[in-house]
Amino acid sequence: MQKSLLTLLFLFNLYSSYSQDTITYFTDAIKKNITPYKIASNKAYESNNITEGKMLFDSLVKTKLVGTKFDDFNLKVYKEKNVKINRINKPIFIITYSSWCVIPKGEIPALNILAKEHRNDMQFIVVFWDKKSDLKNIAYKFSSNIKVCYANEYYSKDSHIISSIKHTLGFPTSIFIDENKNVISVKHFENNTKIKTPIKEAIISSYNYFSKDINENLVSAASNNKSFTTTSN
C-alpha cells in the first residue's frame, strides 16, 4: 500500500505542469523532480518490481525532461580541445559510460559505424565518468567521428554535470538533443548480448538497436524544428 501511494504521489507531481513561458533547463528539471522519483523508484526496485521502476523513469523523462533546454556544458575531450555543447550546430547523441563497466560486445563497433553514417547530420559524444588517465585503454576503440569525453569528481569544474546527471540518471544512459539544444529523449539502455555471441551478430544487434533509436529521435528533432520555425514566422 505504501509503495503504491508513493508511486501515485510521484506521478501526480510529475503531471502537475509548470509555466511554459520561461526556459526550463535540463539540470534544473532534474533537481526539482529527482527526489520524489528516487523515493518511489527505490521502493519499486526493493520490491523487485522492475516494470514499475522503469515506468517511473519513463514518466519522469516524458513529463519533466523531454522539451527542456540542455545545459551548455564544457566537456573535456580526450586528446582534443574541450567542446561546449552550444557550439555544436547539429543534433547530439550523448552516451554515458564508466571505464570500469564492461561495454557489451559489438556496441563500440556499432556506434562507430553509425557515427560515420551520420557524421554530417549529428554529433556522437561518449562521456566517461572517469579521469583522463582511466581512458587510455578504451578511448582508442572509438572512431574519430565520436568525441570521447570524460568528467570526474576529481575535477572541480565537473561538479555540476556529475551531480546533475551521473548521480541522478545513472549509466549507461543516452541523451538525444536537437540542434536547438532541446532534449528529445533520455533512456536507460541495456545490451543483452551474451559473451559467446559471435562478434558479427553482436555488432548487428547493437547497430539495429541504436539505429532505430537514432532515426526516431532525428524525426522528432526535425518535427520540433519545423514547429519552431512555423511559430517563429
Task: Note the main attributes of this structure.
single chain, 233 residues, alpha/beta, Glutaredoxin, 2 domains, seven-stranded mixed β-sheet, 6 helices, 15% strand
Q: Would you write up a description of this structure?
A:
- By secondary structure, this protein is an alpha/beta fold.
- It contains 6 helices and 7 strands, in the order αααβββαββαββα.
- It folds into 2 domains: 64 residues, no CATH class; 159 residues, Glutaredoxin (3-Layer(aba) Sandwich).
- It is 46% helix and 15% strand.
- Strands 2-1-5-4-3-6-7 form a 7-stranded mixed β-sheet.
- A hairpin with a 5-residue loop joins strand 6 and strand 7.
- Helix 1 packs antiparallel against helix 2, helix 1 runs parallel beside helix 3 and helix 2 packs antiparallel against helix 3.
- The longest helix is centred in the last third of the chain and has 34 residues.
- The mean pLDDT is 88.
Q: Give the C-level CATH assignment of the largest domain.
A: Alpha Beta
What is the domain tally? Answer: 2
The secondary-structure class comes to alpha/beta
What is the terminal-to-terminal distance?
51 Å
Helical residue percent band: 40-55%
CATH architecture of the largest domain: 3-Layer(aba) Sandwich
Number of strands: 7
Rg (CA only)? 18 Å
Percent strand: 5-15%
Number of helices: 6
Shape category: globular
Q: How would a crystallographer describe the biggest sheet?
A: 7 strands, mixed
**Segments where pLDDT lies below 50 for 5+ residues?**
none
CATH topology of the largest domain: Glutaredoxin
CATH homologous superfamily name of the largest domain? Glutaredoxin
Q: Trace the largest sheet across and list its strands.
A: 2-1-5-4-3-6-7
H and E order: HHHEEEHEEHEEH
- What's the average pLDDT? 88
